[in-house]
Amino acid sequence: MAVASGSLTVLGSSGGFPISGFACSGYLARIAGQSLLLDCGPGIAGALIGADAKAGIDGVVISHLHSDHVLDLIPLGYALMTEWLTDGRTQPVPLYLPPGGLEFLQSFSDLFGHRNWRFTEEGRNAGYQALGAALARGRDWLLTVFDAREYEPGEDIAFGTTTIATFPVDHRVPTAAMRLRLGAMDFVYSADTRFLPALGHFAAGTDLFLVDAHFSGPKAPGGLHMTPADAGRLAAIAKAKRLVLCHLGAPEDGASARQTAAAHFDGEIHVAFDTREYRL
Ligand SMILES: [Zn+2]
Question: Can you give the residue ranges of the Metallo-beta-lactamase domain (predicted)?
């Protein structure tokens, strides 16, 4: 049987805040013709949406509710709303959020939504009519263009024909690492977390292990993130084929981060930078 194609594109991997040329966290997984966005930090909407103004995504999974992983849900929502209004789109994009996500999205909607808008022109397309009907019911556009639901870290998420396994990591707020197949390639994303040997076991044997290496230096202060050395140790536990260091607090230190990780892991090591694509 032919294996469906798949790939992973780094749209942004900067830590904490975007800098010129480096958006915050956002990774585009392509699986059997479907596109799934993992995290949506500042800069991701611009990295994702092409000149045709189409987002081209079939689903979004958010690892946790920190601003550097979610803020661009607003501009992404605007792009989707435009698809409804101008192209007649009526299908919301599934959006999987960790616990508290629905309330969080509601507060986004309260802050940035436009529940007082009314779309009442006759003869416009089906998307315009559907959005107008939702607003008339008091449902904001943001909660209409996304079909938002919560998942519990540790629970599987069904997306099309793919299952996304999630794993609860430790980042002081509910946060999930994720494991999924991208065609022939197995892929694990650590999300943000302190060093947890159990995460290495969750990632056992993976082809591509994308690991938070936010802090440089020998120790991760406060236990919120890992260092490149931690990432190397974790990839060694997992016996991963390829380690990709991401979420670096100082992306310009990529070469030294790679060198530090290499002292703990003898497989292939990359430093994620924006728009890098991985395939098997
Ligand atoms: Zn975080």
Answer: 23-247
